[in-house]
Each structure stands twice: as C-alpha cells, then as structure tokens.
C-alpha cells in the first residue's frame, strides 16, 4: 500500500517539475475527446467560416437615406421573425459579430438595439453638416493577411477598407498643453523600440526588457481563452487542481497577477519614461496600479505595427455587418430597448421583454452585448443573476470609468489645416495614478472649478481618405476626457436637450477647457469653429 502511495506521489512530483508532461497528457485527452465527439457526440453545426464570403469591394455608399435604411430599422412587433433561435441584446461590434457568425451557421438571429441607430461605439452621427465618430478611433493588426483582417473581411463580405494612420500614430503631450513635451510613437516593432531608446538613451536596458515582457505576455494571452475553449471537465480539473497555473504561461509567469505599475517599478525609476510606457491606459480605462500587465501588453502589441481607420467612417463597420446578417435571414432592429431577460422555472433564459409595452419575444439562446453591469443588475431576474458564479465578480469590480467628448466642426480641409492622421494623448503630469484619482474624486459641486488632467484628441476627417468627398472644405475634431456619472446624476430623469441651463453650462464650461487644450497644440484652428461645440 505504501509503495503505491509513494509511486503516485513520485508521479505527481514528476509532472509538477515538468509541466510539459501534463500538457502532453491533456493534449491526448483532448484528442480523444474530439474523436469521441466526432463519432458519437452531438452533430456539429455549420462552420460559419468554412466559405470565403468576400466579394469585390464596392464604393462607399454616401446617400444618407440608403445608409439609414440599413442602420436605422425601427422596431416593429409585426416584423419580428418567427421561430427565432437567437436574440442578441445590443448592436455593438461584439453583438453584431456574434450575430453574423450564428446567422451563417444556420441560426435565425434577431439583434435588438435601444439607440436610434445600430453600431454601438461604431456608430456615427451628423450634426450641422459635420459627421462625428463616437468610439472607434483606431484599430491595430489590420495589415493584409493578419487574423484580424481576415476575420473582419469575412464578417463584412470584404467590403471594409482600412486606411493606415500616420507612421507616428500616437503623440503624447506631457505637461501644460501650452508648452508640452511631445513624444511620438512610431509604427513597426523595431522602429517602435528604437524610437523609445532614442527618446530615453540612458534607459536602453529598461526599454529592451520592457518590450521583451510585452511580447512574451501578449503572446501568452491565448491562455486566458483556452480554459473556455477546452472541454468543461478538463477546464474544471485544471482549475480545481491549480494545474492551469503551471500549464498556461500567462499564469505561470505571473502576467495576470502583476500590475503594470509593478512591472514598471521593477524596470526603472524614471517617472517620465513610466508615463510614456503607460500613456495608452485611456484605451482600457484603468490606471497602471490597477491594470494587469497582460492586458496592457496586449494593447501595446495590438498597435505596435501600425494603426488603421475605416475608409468611409466607423459606421461602415456596422453598415456592412448588418447586411451580412440580413443575407442569412437575420434582422437588426433599433429603438428596441430590452427591459428584461425572461427565464423559465429552472432559471434558463428563453426570451426578452421589449419596450414600454413589455412585448415578449422568445428564442432558444439569448446573448447580451449590453455590458455585464446592465445584464446582471438590471436585465436578469435577481435570483438568476445572484445564482451565477459571475455575480460576485460583477459587484466587486463595479462600473468602468466614463468619458465625455467635445465634438467640433471646423472650417477648412484637414490638408489645408495640416491636421495629423494620428491620436494625441494629453497628460498634465507624469503620475497617472494620482491625476486620475484626483480628477475622478472631484465632487459634483466642484466640477465647475475642475482642471482637466487627461485628454485625447482625434481628427476623424484626417484619418478617413474619403471624408473630403462627403464634406468638402470641412474638418472634424474630437476632444475626450474622463467623466463620472455622479457628476450629472442630478439630471438623470430629465429628457435629452431639456435638462436646463445649469446642465448645459457645466458641459460647455468643460468643453471650452478641452477645446483650449486642443488650440494650445493646434493654434491654426483658432477662429475656425463653424458648428459650435457639442459636449456629450
């Protein structure tokens, strides 16, 4: 009996000392699982990517009515398809992606969007003769042949075209904008690194080590998804035993446990370099002391080879994805606010309620692209939400940071005004943790006296090579900063555009401060505002 115990213990110690043995065993189990499913399991559905759906690219449709016919299909109960398989709540990029793939797999899909047009952060709006984007300012890894490009081509039937941003795709303005120090991030693995070394020659070793960690951590990112892809019994075994921390590099090397701040503090004492290496935190909305290094590394690696912008504007993404959904019998409807997710007696979802009249629509599967907070705190029945293993994490993490944008219409073309096809990140100080904390701890009664520490400037008109065809002699600018819902919660029950002078006064006050920061960096825009500022 003792010898059996000793033998088992020796085997376990051997596996623990060499995780590759365990990986080989798991690979064998997975292979056997695939064989078993293939011959005796449930029939596998249609592969939505088995066929190449790309078609010759057509010119951008610029007729507003034609675009609205796709992007603004208003909800009507009489037009809801029968015998639905899937309902997707929300028409952001994630929801539309799921809808396209499931439609191609043979399922009947309905997407419901509460806004008056589809697209989520991909949507655009036209005001006073200017078009503005709202959330997609640049996308990485879209060179020909990349996985991202291949997937987006398939999702849009090859109709999306992508224009590269300037070689120096991100600019960092550090300090007071009137006399800011400018750092520019260059495209290309080697050029990106060499540029940093040229800016901080005394920190060459720290920069080289940082980039090694970025590459290694981003390459291990797949491990975060693997536990969801593996058969459930294998995933549970790995988690229960803790062996996933040995098998998956992202856990084994601590990339999920270490924060960005911890990594930077271990590399250098140069505060300005730390700022330059973490400037992009606005993309994911978490400060260096709180964000896991692996997330930051993935974002840096996403853009390091260069950034792109959709030709024709960001609404092109939703415009073509919706047509892909409709091609296979699905629908995308707007002004369709889902008020509740319906569940049966066993807590299994089976439908939704829509609108003020609580019109019920049923389907076998419900996918929520409405955000985890909305889904678990508002849409799901409380008993079902609290029974989920996700619920404790939702309450622990809390809502993400919000942003406020000032939209400006400008007289003159981007070429004449020499506007860059790049992003400008504004950082008043080199301590992101402190500046974000001070800013977001501002009380509602103090926001009129608040000084903005962080900002982001984008010129969509300079990024889109076809902008001039649609809006000749005009340019658009966006200036973005952090915001808190609490600052404006007093007006939460008031109708849009009917919230009173005080509300509009606060927005305009902050908007003018944001615009002045833009003018400090681009003085040629002074006196060129045509549409007036709209802050949202």
UniProtKB/TrEMBL annotation:
Top-rank taxon: Eukaryota
Keywords of the record: FAD, Flavoprotein, NAD, NADP, Signal
A UniProt-annotated Pfam family: NAD_binding_8
Record keyword NAD present: yes
PANTHER family: AMINE OXIDASE DOMAIN-CONTAINING PROTEIN (PTHR46091:SF3), BLR7054 PROTEIN (PTHR46091)
Family membership: Belongs to the carotenoid/retinoid oxidoreductase family. CrtISO subfamily.
Name under which the protein is recorded: Amine oxidase domain-containing protein
UniProt source species: Biomphalaria glabrata
């Amino acid at each position: 009996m003792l010898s059996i115990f000793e033998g088992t213990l020796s085997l376990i110690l051997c596996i623990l000392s060499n995780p590759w043995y365990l990986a080989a065993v798991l690979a064998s189990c997975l292979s056997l699982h695939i064989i078993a499913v293939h011959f005796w399991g449930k029939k596998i559905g249609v592969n939505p990517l088995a066929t190449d759906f790309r078609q010759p690219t057509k010119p951008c449709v610029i007729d507003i009515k034609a675009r609205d016919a796709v992007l603004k299909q208003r909800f009507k109960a009489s037009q809801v398809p029968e015998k639905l398989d899937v309902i997707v709540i929300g028409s952001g990029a994630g929801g539309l992606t799921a809808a396209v793939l499931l439609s191609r797999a043979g399922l009947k899909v309905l997407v419901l969007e509460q806004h008056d047009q589809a697209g989520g952060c991909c949507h655009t709006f036209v005001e006073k003769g200017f078009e503005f984007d709202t959330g997609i300012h640049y996308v990485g890894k879209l060179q020909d042949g990349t996985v991202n490009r291949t997937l987006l081509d398939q999702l849009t039937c090859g109709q999306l075209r992508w224009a590269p941003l300037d070689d120096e795709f991100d600019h960092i303005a550090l300090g007071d904008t009137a006399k800011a120090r400018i750092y520019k991030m260059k495209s290309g693995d080697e050029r990106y690194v060499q540029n940093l070394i040229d800016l901080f020659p005394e920190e060459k070793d720290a920069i080289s080590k940082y980039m090694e960690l970025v590459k290694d951590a981003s390459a291990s990112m797949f491990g975060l998804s693997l536990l969801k892809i593996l058969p459930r019994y294998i995933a549970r075994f790995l988690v229960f035993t803790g062996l996933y921390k040995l098998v998956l590099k992202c856990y084994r090397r601590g990339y999920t446990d270490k924060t960005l701040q911890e990594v930077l503090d271990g590399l250098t004492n140069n505060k300005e370099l730390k700022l330059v290496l973490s400037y992009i935190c606005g993309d994911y909305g978490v400060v260096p002391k709180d964000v896991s290094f692996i997330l930051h590394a993935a974002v840096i690696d996403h853009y390091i080879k260069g950034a792109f912008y959709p030709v024709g504007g960001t609404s092109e993404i939703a415009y073509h994805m919706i047509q892909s959904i409709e091609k296979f019998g699905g629908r995308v409807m707007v002004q369709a606010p889902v008020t509740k997710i319906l569940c049966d007696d066993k807590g299994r979802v089976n439908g939704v309620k829509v609108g003020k009249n609580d019109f019920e629509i049923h389907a076998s599967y419900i996918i929520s692209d409405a955000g985890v907070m909305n889904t678990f705190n508002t849409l799901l029945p409380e008993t079902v939400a609290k029974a989920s293993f996700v619920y404790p994490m939702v309450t622990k993490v809390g809502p993400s940071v919000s942003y406020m944008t000032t939209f400006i219409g400008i007289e003159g073309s981007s070429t004449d005004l020499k506007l860059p096809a790049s992003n400008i990140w504004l950082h008043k100080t080199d301590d992101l943790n402190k500046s974000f904390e001070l800013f977001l701890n501002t009380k509602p009664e103090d926001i009129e006296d608040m000084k903005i520490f962080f900002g982001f400037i984008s010129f969509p008109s300079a990024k889109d090579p076809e902008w001039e065809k649609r809006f000749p002699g005009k340019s658009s600018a966006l200036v973005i900063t952090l915001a808190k819902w609490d600052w404006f919660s007093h007006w939460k029950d008031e109708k849009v555009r009917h919230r009173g002078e005080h509300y509009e006064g606060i927005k305009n006050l902050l908007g003018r401060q944001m615009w002045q920061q833009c003018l400090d960096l681009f003085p040629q825009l002074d006196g060129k505002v045509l549409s007036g500022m709209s802050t949202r």
